[in-house]
Amino acid sequence: xxxxxxxxxxxxxxxxxxxxxxxxxxxxxxxxxxxxxxxxxxxxxxxxxxxxxxxxxxxxxxxxxxxxxxxxxxxxxxxxxxxxxxxxxxxxxxxxxxxxxxxxxxxxxxxxxxxxxxxxxxxxxxxxxxxxxxxxxxxxxxxxxxxxxx
Amino acid sequence: xxxxxxxxxxxxxxxxxxxxxxxxxxxxxxxxxxxxxxxxxxxxxxxxxxxxxxxxxxxxxxxxx
Lengths: 150, 65
What we know:
Chain A is mainly α. Chain A has seven helices and no strands. Chain A has helices spanning 3-14, 21-46, 48-75, 77-87, 90-105, 109-116, 129-149. The longest helix of chain A is centred in the middle third of the chain and has 28 residues, at 48-75. Chain B has one domain (4-61).
């Protein structure tokens, strides 16, 4: 069927009140939503590699906006309450501890900065990177000396 | 030792030497102590300027080009 014929047929079917394609599509989508979702899901299951690639691409393209959305939600009243509840859970506590331990063991920037700023009137983030790097080497050396003593 | 970067390199060398047994732990401890003093004094300098809301160039803290 040619496009023009299709349009004529569509207009006949839809009548005068539904000529607006956008409105028509909206209504059509609501009617067929479940079927479309199932179809898309079936395609995803049939093409796992393409799906993974598609999702990875989407993540890369939307990383910043996703981060922004998370921050906006965390700052909202509902989000803040939700995160506060989450921080009370054992799951969160164990993850946080594992992260802290990892930062301490690998002498991560955030750990070194925190240690350096413990008795200072400024934040760790205000310390210059060169100084932080030197402090990291010093900590490594001190740890080695401690191990040698034991 | 002209700047912080050189101090870091020196500390890394000391660490490697200690690991391989080229220097004694007591010697390395002295170097670590001295380096700690140098870093501490630089830290105080940074804090001083930050609290005065000044940001002068501190040559010793600048990395090598």
